[in-house]
């Protein structure tokens, strides 16, 4: 299928997509901060460079966009333009996520993932997401996967 915009417009649109400080990430950081949690951001010294690091709890949190990480939810659908490129790109992202998760768990970190779909849409439950995050941080459970 042919793209609905020209190459220059598509390039401009894609360059505006940020990898850090996204709206879902800012929302989770704000919610945690209001509850009294203090954390580090974008830890370059840890595998996968987690979005939020809570050293006191031995935990890291990734805030994943459903499209970029190929989540199995209504927010994700395979692009019809350049399908081979996107399958390879998203497949690589998924493989990197799994490697990072395994390396962090092996290093003794607890790993939480909050998916974009948990924070968007008519059925979103921000209080519930925050409470499950807080409960997980205070527990000894090694992993959390918060999805919509």
Automatic annotation (TrEMBL):
- The EC number of this protein is 3.1.-.-
Q: Which GO terms describe its biological process?
A: mismatch repair
In the record, what terms sit under GO molecular function? endonuclease activity; hydrolase activity
InterPro entries cross-referenced by the UniProt entry: DNA_mismatch_endonuc_vsr, Restrct_endonuc-II-like
Q: Which enzyme class?
A: hydrolase
Keyword list, A-Z: DNA damage, DNA repair, Endonuclease, Hydrolase, Nuclease
Output the superkingdom of the source species.
Answer: Bacteria
Q: Pfam families recorded for this chain?
A: Vsr
Matching entries from CDD domains are given as: Vsr
Sequence similarity = Belongs to the vsr family.
What does this chain do? May nick specific sequences that contain T:G mispairs resulting from m5C-deamination.
Protein name stated in the entry: Very short patch repair endonuclease
């Amino acid at each position: 299928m042919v793209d609905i915009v020209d190459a220059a417009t598509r390039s401009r649109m894609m360059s505006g997509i940020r990898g850090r400080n996204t709206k879902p990430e800012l929302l989770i950081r704000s919610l945690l901060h209001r509850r009294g949690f203090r954390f580090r951001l974008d830890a370059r010294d840890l595998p996968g460079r987690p979005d939020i690091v809570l050293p006191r709890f031995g935990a890291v949190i990734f805030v994943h966009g459903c499209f970029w990480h190929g989540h199995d939810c209504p927010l994700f659908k395979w692009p019809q333009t350049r399908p081979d490129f996107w399958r390879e790109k998203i497949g690589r992202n998924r493989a990197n996520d799994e490697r990072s998760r395994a390396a962090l768990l092996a290093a003794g970190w607890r790993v939480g993932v909050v998916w974009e779909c948990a924070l968007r849409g008519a059925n979103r439950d921000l209080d519930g997401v925050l409470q499950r995050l807080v409960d997980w941080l205070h527990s000894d459970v090694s992993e959390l996967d918060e999805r919509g």
